[in-house]
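Researcher: Re-running this chain for the archive, since the previous output was lost when a drive failed. Same request as before.
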Amino acid sequence: MAEPRTPTPDEIRALVRGIVEATLAGQPAGTPGAGASAVSAPAAVAPAAVAPAAGDGRVAIAIGSDHGGWQLKDTIAKQLTEAGYAIHDCGTNGPAAVDYPDIALAVARLVADGTCRWGIVLDGAGIGSAMVANKVPGIRAANCHDLSSARNSREHNHANVLTLGARFLGEGLALEVVKVWLGTAWGPGRHAERVEKISQVERTYAAGAPRGGAA
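Model: Regenerated structure tokens:
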């Protein structure tokens, strides 16, 4: 009889992820009711065991938009609420012009201080909001424009803030991007090691490292 083949690390991770997803999917807490459809509460959000939550145990998400995406922001927030998340709405809530740096900072702060587990920011292109959010220590914001970039930003880069360009994404695609982003676990191993190097860069400059050209 042939010796059984030893599974590869990737196969083991896939098996464990499948078990976790199947287990968490069966829990009644945080699952949507019959009316929820477009975005379901993901089983694979990691690390769910330590996710900041509202008083009733729901995972907390901060969301905000400037005037370029407030309607899409409201749609996403509604779907996430129906899916069982606790939403912290950072505005804006109408077409009057506001500055995207203010909104992005408000969302990033709630994630950085632990009030919320994840953050979602919308503006016209999603680029400026990512730049602002990434100035906040502890934030890894990713501007995602499709399902592949959403998945990659989570698995490879451990993104904790998602930024979206409301002028470039239709409602259906935006909702799918959010669903995939929230449903993709942070990758272990080499991915975690590389993300730690990102954090090392942040700590170095926070400590006042010499700038280029300094003696």
